[in-house]
Amino acid sequence: MKKRISVLSCLVIMMLVLLTACNTNTSNGEKGSSEGTIKIGVLASMTGPLESYGKQTVNGFELGLDYATDGSNEVAGKKIEFIVEDTETKPEVAVKKATKLLEDDEVDFLVGSSSSGDTLAVVPLAEEYEKIMVVEPAVADSITGSEYNPYIFRTARNSSQDAVAGAAAIAKKGVKIATFAPDNSFGRDGISAFKEAAEKLGANILHEEYADPAGTDFTSNIQKIIEQQPDYLFIVWAGANSPWNQLADMKVEEKGIKISTGAPDIPALQTMKPLVGMEGFSVYYHDLPKNEVNDWLVTEHKKRFNNEVPDLFTPGGMSAAIAIVEALKKTDGDTNSEQLIESMEGMSFETPKGTMTFREEDHQALQTLYAIKLESKEGVDYPVPTLIRELSPEETAPPIRNK
Fold it and tell me: What is 160-282+370-391's CATH number?
């Protein structure tokens, strides 16, 4: 009897060993994703000065997964999970959180981040761990330029795309322009790109002014600009500490200086009532794009978020999610980075802003931007970006800077 039990026990143990080996081979093979689950790590500023940007991106990303998978959160038979980590808009924290996602959570993709500084700190990790990172919404040219690596794909527009749109609104031969931006990679890259685009159109950039990114008093900066007597003041800005009220208090426009900038998110638009009539550009406003994906986004966002419309960075989060799902459809769920890179280079996909295409040379998504004018609208407590004309992906294609 004991001998029979012993033989049965051995058979059971052998079967368990074989099953374990089979499961191990399935989870650790070329597919890369354990137990049929694809993991995505999302880096975003969930607190701090860019908190609203981070939350918009995360909301958009969640909606994008639902849209791209028809609500199943599955692709090629694999479940998709995403983990959000708060970078606090601090590069050292971003690196720590990204390392945690890559090592402890073993994510297959990274997405983020809200600030260019955070993103530039994390970009080398994507190459080190050989994981695709979809950059959203950071805009510094250097991300897909001097700091480019083949694992980086960007659904966010970059500073040069903003610059082309901004220059198209105001720059022409003989126009004198001063610029104002925060003294960081986002601000300096933005102004450098704008200057290049505006000078090509014949404008004269006669002064560049940079301010403390964490500052709140811009009196001396604005006074220096006034002293230069430009025709236009072009501003690159992000964050809650915006200069709009001080520009109004110092009566800049009354001194004959027209202000132009990219239309910000809705909370910032509420501080720009003195700028009604301003012509500039927009990355996104929910009424501007006319396509089925944006219609879905606006309708679904209102359902889920207390009848609120999607804001400036919501469609970017959605676009990042759609890009990842479309890439995984092409690889049949394989998360091998080399196969993903091959599939994503030159890939076009539909987003709330229309068709985006990852340019093969630098993985920057070519996309539509919008020339706009800020106008008053009955029942709306902020200046509304109204469309002058769409700026096509071809028109706003930025220079390739990763050579």
Answer: 3.40.50.2300
